[in-house]
Amino acid sequence: MSFRFYNFVSIRELSRKQRMKYIPMTKQWILLLLLPLLLSSCQFKSRQANNRGLVYMQESQYEMAVSEFNEAVREEPSYFPAYYNRAVANANIGRNKEALLDFNYLATIFPDHADTYFNRGVVHENLGNFAQAIQDYSETVKLRPDFIMAYHYRGIARFRMQDYSGALEDYNKALTLGANTTMDVLTAKEFGLNSSALYYNRGVVLQKLGDLSHAIQDYSEAIRIDPSSARAYYNRGVARIALSQPREALADLEIASRLGHRQADQVIRDYFRN
User: Fold this and answer.
1) Would the CA dihedral through 177, 182, 185, 187 be positive or negative?
2) Is it the case that residue 16 has pLDDT exceeding 80?
3) Does residue 9 register a pLDDT over 90?
4) What's the pLDDT score for residue 19?
5) Is 216 exposed, middle or buried (0-12, 13-18, 19+ CB in 10 A)?
6) What is the tally of helices (H) and strands (E) in the chain?
7) In angstroms, how far is CA 167 from the centroid of its own chain?
8) Tens of pLDDT along 30-56?
9) Mean pLDDT, rounded, for 199-212
10) 251 in helix, strand or coil?
11) How would you class 65 by CB atoms within 10 Å of its CB: exposed for 0-12, middle for 13-18, buried for 19 or more?
12) Which of 145, 222, 136 is nearest to 181 (CA)?
């Protein structure tokens, strides 16, 4: 008997959990907030509007932020940080087409800006344009070969294109870079290395490819990081059924059920109670 295992963690889910995944905004904000000190008075209004928008971004008031960035662009059409920040604000409230317009414009003006390609890739992925997302993530890592999130997100896009070998390659690269990089807890969280998503997603690919033992290892690591991950318990349970480990499988499925995974109840009924 075979059971469907639970799918990957998507870009949309990652973005809901960590709104600022779209860009490393903290560094960007620090950079932008220093700019007005060097400006002439004729540029004051646009910079002030941009700074107000950044404050709204920090407070997750994205509609208000967009209004301020619009004003900054009206006051000074050549002030490119406002376009960038407006794109990020629009992306955070699901206005992906509007965000895409700004990122497209910025990519023509600053063709060597890795964050623009990365963020545009996220927007393309949320719009279901997976091939274009892969192109943007590839451009990102060409410009910044140590961009861990770009490898992770390209892996997700490749998974959606059913390129499982390519997805596995990207997840491996992201985890290798993380293992070779010294970073504090907050930075690790920014790159997804202390969340269960990266290990979980690699486990899904390995399970798709039939490598159940290594898939179980990744689900176990995902569970170690996030013991509340019902889907990781569920998938590990299904993998253990396939490896004829019924006792361990039942224990995983019961935990998944307690954590609210309804498919786990069905598998327990079908496999263990008939």
Assistant:
1) negative
2) no
3) no
4) 36
5) buried
6) 16, 0
7) 14
8) 333 344 444 555 578 888 999 999 999
9) 95
10) helix
11) buried
12) 145
Place of tokens 């279901």: 128
DSSP string covering 118-178? HHHHHHHHHTT-HHHHHHHHHHHHHH-TT-HHHHHHHHHHHHHTT-HHHHHHHHHHHHHHH
233 in Cβ contact with 261 (< 8 Å): yes
Question: 112-143: b or e for each residue (b if 16 or more CB lie within 10 Å)?
Answer: ebbbbbbbbbbbbbbeebbebbbbbbebbbeb
pLDDT digits (tens, 9 = 90+) for 221-268: 999 988 999 999 999 999 999 999 999 999 999 999 999 999 999 999
Position 129: which residue type?
A: N
Taking a C-beta distance cutoff of 8 angstroms, is the pair 32, 54 a contact? yes
Cβ atoms of residues 159 and 205 within 8 Å: yes
Q: How much of the chain exceeds pLDDT 70, in percent?
A: 78
Instruction: Tell me if residue 28 falls in helix, strand or coil.
Output: helix
Please check whether residue 121 is in contact with residue 153, taking contact to mean a CB–CB distance below 8 angstroms: yes
For residues 185 and 176, the model is more confident at 176
Which two tokens mark 254?
A: 């019961």
Token duo for residue 180? 């070779």
Total count of residues recorded for the chain:
274
User: Mean of the pLDDT values across residues 57-82?
Assistant: 93
In whole angstroms, give the CA distance from residue 100 to residue 256.
38
What backbone torsions phi and psi does residue 102 show, to the nearest 5 degrees?
Answer: -70, -40
- Hunting for tokens 């294109």 — which residue is that? 161
Please give the radius of gyration of the chain, using alpha carbons only, rounded to the nearest integer. 21
